Structure prediction request, 620 residues.
Amino acid sequence: MPILNRIQQRTPVGRIWMLCIYVLLSLGAATMVYPFLLMLNGAMATSDAATNTLSVIPQPLVDDQALFQTYVEKRYGSLGSFEVMTLQRAPDGKRLYSYETLEMPTNTPPALIREWEAFLKQADVVNSPYFAMGHVAGSRLIAELQLRYQKMLAVRFPELPRKDHSAGTVVENIGARRFQPIQGAYAEVYNQMRSEADERYFHPFSLRGAFLQTTVQPEYPISPEGLAQLNTDWGTHYASFSDIELPRTPPENPAMLKAWWDFVQNALAGRFIVLSPELAPDFQSSLQQKYQNLERYNRAHGTNWAAWPEIPLPPLPRSPLGNRDVEDLLTRLASPVGVSLVAADFQWVDFLREQFKNQIGSLNAAFGTSYQSFDQVPMPLLEYDAVIVLRHKGEILWEMLTRNYRVAWNLVYTNGNAFKNTVILCFLSVITNLIVNPLAAYALSRFRPPWSQQVLFIMMATMAFPAEVTQIPSFLLLRDLGMLNTFAALVIPGAATGFSIFLLKGFFDSLPQELYEAADIDGCGRIRAFFMITIPMSTPILALTALGAFTSAYGAFAFALLVCQNEEMWTLMVYVYQLQQSYAQPIIFAALVIAAIPTLLIFVFCQNIIMRGIVVPVEK
Prediction:
């Protein structure tokens, strides 16, 4: 019976009531849809900056600034690395504490971008020892190239356990001493991935930024007072810390020389060091102290030198072991004479000198700047990052918005047994529920024992207690029976449910008794009548029972984790829960969205069966 009949609905008061009802229904729908949209947006977050934004629409879709922040965060990794590379500071000149405060460069001179692209082409960034590959930094959130490497590793080594698919993933911190490129069995896969990556994934390492962060800033705080003290000590007139230059050779200024040599001797990686021929004896002496005997050196380097004086200075680019030998030499040198630097910073300056015929005025006219010398021109990393984002916007957006889903799919459905275990569990649960519950309900309905009401009451009473109440007793019983970590432990406790038996019995009671009487006259037995009469007429309610069994088994988590603690027996929901220990919230959201697809499809395609299972028993 409707709340308002059709005549009442046409009255002004009735229309107001109907409007209120629809408003309430809409608000109720919004309270369900809004959290779901937040989860969808969260599943598309690929950076901390995007994760901290609460919105139903992914901000990178509508805001280039948000897209730029997300892209830069995954390109450079930590804020410390970003500051070293780009010399970027907060608007107040202090250190950045979040990528969310980073502003996207605008109005960049086209001439600057043209010159930078020409420099990158000349530098051969993929093979250059002074350029690092970005988009690999990530632990709980997976970066783009990190995911690509994991997939290539899984294809190359299919027998490798899932937990080892991240083996060999390293952040190319080429400015750090003792940095070790990937070695061993995984090196081939990593080098292949690196060689196939587009040039836009690489960025130069800035020696100037490393000098500021590791040597200057610890002694001079980032403040007007700190800058003033530096200018006083060094006899300079820098307007900001970003203006501080790093000479490629030992400077004449004693205070600057002290900082320069401290940086080179104690912090700088060997790949950026150039040794003059006059240091060959010192180098050979350092090798002799390090290796003790020539045989040990030859074995380490794969050489066959007969005497220490025969060993030449290692040419650039050096091997990792050669770089470590140079670093050891620096710690033994008493002065920086004969030591110079090589890096992308200096290659950029040399390139500009050649392009503009060593005329700084021509450069300033082309770039719209006012530099006093070529050494002051920084590498336009952030400006070029903005160009990349706008130039490849569609490709970057698609990769970002789908990355977490690809990570989740790779983790949940293509690794381990979670997906297979869930399919088997759902199949067994549906089959056992369709066998046990209808038989129990049929016995109570057709045979009508005198204690059937008491049995039905006991079954209904089980619905008054949450399932968690029986978990511990069930666990102890299954343990004593030796069923833990088996499908029997997952299926048997849920094979019969009080609600299903109650629902089926009520439906069986409503079936026409004349059909069973006619069957008795024809000599049809009770079991045959069950399969020939009851089952064919109970399709809607049986479908509802099967769907209930499926959703219960598919969404099982707490009890499944309790009785199957072996990782090989984990179901999908248990696996998704365990992902929280190693991965960030956006990946968990993506896994949950993917896990919800089967139940959504079943509801969409089986909603008529569900409605018939609900309405038909009521009509009967």
User: Anything to note?
Assistant: The two ends are 17 Å apart (CA to CA).
